[in-house]
Design a protein that fits this description.
This protein has helices spanning 2-10, 22-28, 38-53, 65-79, 109-114, 129-134, 161-166, 229-244, 257-267, 275-279, 283-297, 304-310, 314-318, 356-362, and strands at residues 98-101, 105-107, 167-168, 173-174, 176-177, 201-202, 220-222, 225-228, 321-327, 334-341. By secondary structure, the chain is an alpha+beta fold. It folds into two domains: 2-82 and 226-297, Serine Threonine Protein Phosphatase 5, Tetratricopeptide repeat (Alpha Horseshoe), CATH 1.25.40.900; 106-208 and 317-370, no CATH class. The chain has a two-stranded antiparallel sheet with strand order 1-8. Helix 1 runs antiparallel to helix 3 (38-53), helix 3 packs antiparallel against helix 4 and helix 8 runs antiparallel to helix 11. The two termini are 29 Å apart.
Length: 370
C-alpha cells in the first residue's frame, strides 16, 4: 500500500497532453498512455483494501469495509457516470471506462482459441450453465423470482442484454447462427473434440471482424485491459454496503451502493425504476445482488476464482459445472441440464499452498491442509 501511495502521489491520473507544455508532454503526455497511471494505482489500492476487508482475510484487521469504500469513493466521484458502451469496453480504447490498457495489436489469437468450430475456432472457453443462470431477466428480476417472467421452454428470451453480449448460446447470431444442440454439425455439444462441452461459447472479447477461414484470414485490433472503471464501482458498492448499508453516504460522495448498482444495471438495459433493486432493504439482500452483478460484469476477466475465496464461499467452490443439452424439434426445443464436471475443493483450499522452498527460506508456517 505504501508503494501504491507513492505512485498515486507522483503519477498523473492519466497520460494526457497539456496545451503548450512541451516539457510536460515529453514525459507525462499522451504518448505514455500504456504506462501505469495514478488512477490505475488507486484502483489497485481499492482492490487490495477490498481483499483485506473480505471475510477470508478480515481477521488481520488491516482494513475495514469503510476504509475500503473510502479508497474507491473519491476517484469514482471524480470520474463521474459510467459511459453507455462500457459493458463492451473492449471494442475500443478511447473511453474513460478503461483506466489502463496495453497497446493495441492486430491479432486473431483470441478468436482462434475461442470461436466455435463453424467459424474455424477451437472453442476452448465454454461458459457454464451456472453463469448463464446468473443473468437476470430484462426486467431485472432473477430467473427464479416469481415476478421474473422466465419461460423454461424459451430460456434465452427477454434476458438481461449482457447475456447476448458475453455468451454465445443456441440460436444466437454471431457472424452466423450458432447451433449448439445435440447432433448439430460442428458446433453441437460434444460433436467434435473442439465443440462445446456445456452448450455455450465465449462471445466477450471476440471481434466479429476476425476471419479465421484459411482461404482468407483477417486479423483486427485488440487491446488487453488491465484496469477499468466498472471494477472500481463494484469495489465501492460492495464495501459501502457492508459499511453503511445500501443507501449510506456519510462522506457526501453523492452516491451510495444502491445508486451505483442502479447505474450499472441501467447501463445494461434494465429499465427504471428497477423494481427488484428497489425492493431490496437489507445489507444481506444487497450483498447477494452486488456479488451477482460482479459475477456478470467481470466474467472472464479473472476475478471469480479469487472472489469466491475471499468471500469464504465454500458452496460456490464445490458447485459442479453445469451445461445444457438441447434437443431440437420442428416445433419446440427441449432443455436438459446436466453436471459436466465436479469441483473437488476442500475448505482449506480457500488459501493456496506456500511453495515449500519459501517456507524453508523464510521459516513460514504452511497453510493448513497443504
Amino acid at each position: 500500500m505504501a508503494d501504491l501511495d507513492i505512485a498515486i502521489e507522483n503519477l498523473p491520473g492519466s497520460y494526457e497532453d497539456r496545451s503548450g507544455d512541451g516539457d510536460y508532454n515529453s514525459t507525462m503526455g499522451s504518448g505514455f498512455q500504456n504506462r501505469i497511471n495514478g488512477n490505475a494505482a488507486i484502483l489497485f489500492k481499492s482492490r487490495v483494501a477490498l481483499l483485506a476487508a473480505s471475510p477470508a482475510f478480515s481477521e488481520s484487521n488491516v482494513f475495514s469495509w469503510a476504509e475500503a469504500a473510502e479508497v474507491a469513493g473519491p476517484l469514482l466521484q471524480e470520474l463521474g457516470p459510467l459511459i453507455e458502451n462500457g459493458k463492451t469496453f473492449y471494442t475500443g480504447t478511447s473511453n474513460k471506462e478503461i483506466l489502463w490498457n496495453r497497446s493495441q495489436r492486430s491479432i486473431r489469437d483470441w478468436e482462434e482459441d475461442n470461436f466455435p468450430p463453424s467459424l474455424f475456432g477451437t472453442g476452448n472457453t465454454n461458459p457454464s450453465q451456472n453463469l448463464v443462470d446468473a443473468f437476470p431477466m430484462i426486467n431485472g428480476f432473477p430467473i427464479d423470482h416469481p415476478s421474473s417472467g422466465y419461460d423454461p421452454s424459451d430460456p434465452y428470451s427477454n434476458r438481461d442484454q449482457r447475456l447476448s453480449d458475453y455468451i454465445i448460446y443456441n440460436g444466437l447470431t454471431f457472424k452466423e447462427t450458432i447451433n449448439t444442440a445435440i447432433g448439430a454439425p460442428l458446433d453441437g455439444i460434444n460433436q467434435l473434440a473442439t465443440s462445446t462441452r456445456t452448450g455455450y461459447y465465449l462471445k466477450k472479447f471476440m471481434a466479429p471482424g476476425v476471419n479465421l477461414n484459411p482461404s482468407g484470414s483477417v486479423s483486427t485490433a485488440h487491446t488487453f485491459t488491465l484496469a477499468r472503471m466498472t471494477e472500481l464501482l463494484l469495489n465501492f458498492a460492495e464495501a459501502a454496503n457492508e459499511a453503511w448499508g445500501p443507501d449510506g453516504d456519510p462522506n457526501g460522495y453523492g452516491f451510495s451502493a444502491r445508486s451505483k448498482i442502479r447505474e450499472l444495471r441501467s447501463r445494461a438495459g434494465i429499465p427504471a425504476p428497477d423494481p427488484y433493486l428497489t425492493s431490496i432493504t437489507s445489507i444481506e439482500e444487497m450483498r447477494q445482488l452486488i456479488k451477482n452483478e460482479r459475477r456478470i460484469e467481470l466474467c472472464f476477466e479473472e476475478f471469480r476464482f479469487w472472489d469466491i475465496r475471499r468471500w469464504n464461499d465454500i458452496a460456490a467452490m464445490q458447485e459442479p459445472v453445469k451445461g445444457v443439452f438441447i434437443t431440437s424439434s420442428s416445433d419446440m426445443n427441449s432443455y436438459e441440464y446436466r453436471n459436466i464436471e465436479n469441483r473437488a475443493y476442500n475448505e482449506n483450499m480457500i488459501y493456496g499452498p506456500i511453495p515449500y522452498n519459501e517456507t524453508l527460506i523464510y521459516d513460514i508456517v504452511q497453510n493448513t491442509g497443504w
